[in-house]
Specification:
By secondary structure, the protein is an alpha+beta fold. About 55% of the residues lie in helices and about 10% in strands. It has a single domain, classed as Cytochrome P450 (Cytochrome p450), CATH 1.10.630.
């Protein structure tokens, strides 16, 4: 099997050779594994992503998202229903709001995990640092302050595996169902708490934000959306930071620059990491009518995947696109999706990632890759550096 063949195995292991071939030879390709059209070029992705009238959100019960998160959710809604729900979600995630609390939320957590690592001199920075920071901070924002990190990590790993379970492995479904049962139990208890006593948690905002005074959304109404938030929110900031850190450590010169002045370079590095490896690699749509793009007819009713992970590596948009380069000419990437479904948490994710990278390069002297272990990355709907073996001076 060629490494560029469009198969679930190739995509999960390393999708970028597949995407490069598709952009060149078959920019809109039907993937039998998920029964959807892959749109892989940057401009074509923008065309589809910005045309909500023709390419609206997919609420198909046959999609893996329906099995994992449930329907309808914020990603499948449109019009006033979507606008009202987003009002609740976005209430405490504006740039101004995030600036008011992100340092107090994030920096103490980063310090705590770094304090436990510093004397070890070596670690898998993804599993030992960036993932725990991400799930703890976002868990606290949601309102899951008493849910252990290990359980939050298991939730998003089980859900991400379910979304990519093209072969319908029963063990993957069993793991997912256990995670969903845990989520339902804990979110149900949190729902009861915020209905009786509203607070500043994201859960409370989703329950009542954008609703008439005195009215709240039911638990069944919001649970699919909360599962979307749990999956995307818990993992994305941590994996984005890990991906950026991996890109830096693969280039000793860029590592030196950041280590010498982490405060001034952390955000630039984080943003390049988002482009280089999009943590959320695909967003689904459905065609409302026949549409021809890149000489390919997409029929009405067909499922369409906007492949952000490919668009961000499009060589016609980004020079030397496969290389991590935080000094490249700044051009917008598409890792946060497209309006009106642009990621609600983009301000929070970038601010958290900036703080995490700043502290890591500030507190771990001579941070470098551990040559005794190989760096590992996996996934395509969700992709991240799962094993980031690093060493530093103690």
């Amino acid at each position: 099997m060629s490494a560029t063949e469009l198969t679930s195995e190739n995509l999960y292991r390393d999708p970028y050779p597949v995407y490069a071939r598709l952009r060149k030879e078959e920019p809109v390709a039907f993937f039998e594994g998920t029964k959807e059209y892959f749109v892989t070029r940057y401009e074509d992705c923008r065309t589809v992503g910005s045309n909500d009238r023709i390419f609206g959100p997919s609420g198909s019960p046959d999609r893996p998202e329906a099995r994992v998160m449930g329907m309808p959710n914020v990603l499948t809604m449109s019009g006033e229903e979507h606008k009202s729900l987003r009002e609740g979600i976005d209430q405490n995630l504006t740039q101004e709001a995030v600036r008011s609390y992100v340092d107090k939320l994030t920096r103490p957590v980063v310090h705590r995990y770094l304090a436990g690592l510093k004397q070890r001199g070596a670690a898998n920075l993804t599993a030992d640092l960036f993932e725990p920071i991400s799930v703890r901070c976002i868990g606290d924002v949601i309102g899951l302050t008493h849910t252990p990190n290990e359980m939050l990590v298991e939730w998003f790993h089980a859900m991400a595996a379910g979304l990519q379970n093209v072969s319908s492995d029963q063990a993957v479904w069993d793991r997912l169902d256990q995670a969903l049962a845990d989520i339902d139990a804990q979110m149900g208890a949190l729902y009861e708490r915020v209905v009786s006593k509203p607070d500043h948690t994201l859960m409370s905002h989703v329950v009542s934000g954008g609703m008439p005074d005195g009215k709240v959304r039911s638990l069944s109404e919001i649970m699919p959306t909360m599962k979307v938030i749990i999956l995307g929110g818990l993992q994305e900031p941590g994996h984005a930071a890990a991906n950026a850190c991996a890109g830096l450590l693969l280039d000793p010169e860029q590592t030196k620059v950041v280590a010498a002045d982490p405060k001034n370079h952390a955000l630039r590095a984080f943003d390049e990491g988002l482009r280089w490896i999009a943590p959320i690699g695909v967003t689904p749509r459905v065609a409302a009518e026949d549409f021809t793009i890149a000489d390919t007819k997409i029929p009405a009713g067909a499922s369409v995947a906007i492949v952000m992970g490919s668009a961000n590596r499009d060589e016609t948009r980004f020079e030397d696109a496969d290389r991590f380069d935080m000094f490249r000419k700044k051009r917008p990437h598409v890792s946060f999706g497209f309006r009106p479904h642009f990621c609600s948490g983009h301000f929070l994710s970038r601010a958290m990632g900036e703080i995490a990278l700043e502290e890591v390069f500030h507190q771990l002297p001579n941070l470098r890759l551990d040559d005794n272990r190989e760096m590992q990355a996996k996934g395509w709907r969700f992709r991240g550096v799962s094993d980031l073996p690093a060493k530093w001076d103690v």
